[in-house]
Amino acid sequence: MGLPALLASALCTFVLPLLLFLAAIKLWDLYCVSSRDRSCSLPLPPGTMGFPFFGETLQMVLQRRKFLQMKRRKYGFIYKTHLFGRPTVRVMGADNVRRILLGEHRLVSVHWPASVRTILGSGCLSNLHDSSHKQRKKGVKARNLIHARIEENIRAKICRLRASEPGGDCKDALQLLIEHSWDKGEPLDMQALKQSSTELLFGGHETTASAATSLISYLGLYPHVLQKVREELKSKGLLCKSNQDNKLDMEILEQLKYIGCVIKETLRLNPPVPGGFRVALKTFELNGYQIPKGWNVIYSICDTHDVADIFTNKEEFNPDRFMPPHPEDASRFSFIPFGGGLRSCVGKEFAKILLKIFTVELARHCDWRLLNGPPTMKTSPTVYPVDNLPARFIHFQGEI
Predict the structure, then answer these.
(1) CA distance 309 to 136
(2) Tens digits of per-residue pLDDT, 109-153?
(3) Which amino acids are annotated as binding site, given as ranges?
(4) Among positive and negative, which fits the CA dihedral 278, 309, 76, 291?
(5) What band does 25 get if pLDDT is binned at 50, 70 and 90?
(6) Annotated binding site for heme: which residue ranges?
(7) What domains does the chain contain, in order, with CATH numbers?
(8) 364 — phi, psi (to 5°)?
């Protein structure tokens, strides 16, 4: 075979498929941006749309923090991409995020990815708004399994309430939802109860478990911070074994200022939920760019914390940055571990109390060592260590 034939063969085998692939990417990009609002003279944000159909979802899932940091360095605080099957604009920075969070129901509305909506259901609390969603098959099996177990508990709860069995002085969220329907004279909507219960399990368990895991990690990596936590506990009489008055109450918890700062710093570096999902209700302007109607908008909590100018030495774990007289969380939208606006986390005060109690009990009863050193963190759906954070715990003797 002569040289011309070899070159032609190589062209057909390698170069032509590459050219076709690049052409497909370009056509995909043109197709995605064709959904822009042509009546608006503003440009779309910079960015790329990735591979045909897949967009940039695979890169984000596989590379996660590195992918997001690369995008931020290249395109800045607002850029377009294609994630979870939809053209998307990612937004970060206090001023930009403020516009999104305060524009709820006016500019944007909550819009979780299809897989999340399928499991939680369209009737869950965070999805209640005027728009409707198509039912998706993906995740139905998992949802049905979860809902079947939840329905058993709901029916048992209803039977106890109808029998007027005493349940103590406290009411749980499920009981409040049931009694709300009864008080209004409405029939119980079992499907809505199951969906709301699923959401409460996720919001009330997964996120606090993520934050508690991060607390164990940081306190294990920074023993001088753990020492200061114990010094604060000792000053409040919470370390002495012989003191019978060292039980926790709300008044004592409010006085544990340094522990509160440790929790804040943990949530700054490892916010349990990395961001929030919205959909544009109409085309609007954001920092000189158009956000087209129907496009998804993701506001990034972790990136907003990373770029906030109010934080000095951002990579350092330093709880003292939140101590008076000049706490570094003074800017409202630079520190948003619980989101903000109309859809800020309804359980944030409960979460803060729970994490304070967890930190107190951990510090006064345990010493521990992380077996694998600083963990690599995954950030979807909540932040968690890749290695599940193996650690060796021993009993703390209560002396510092």
Answers:
(1) 41
(2) 987 666 555 555 555 555 555 443 333 444 566 667 877 888 888
(3) 345
(4) positive
(5) confident
(6) 345
(7) 34-395 (1.10.630.10)
(8) -95, -5
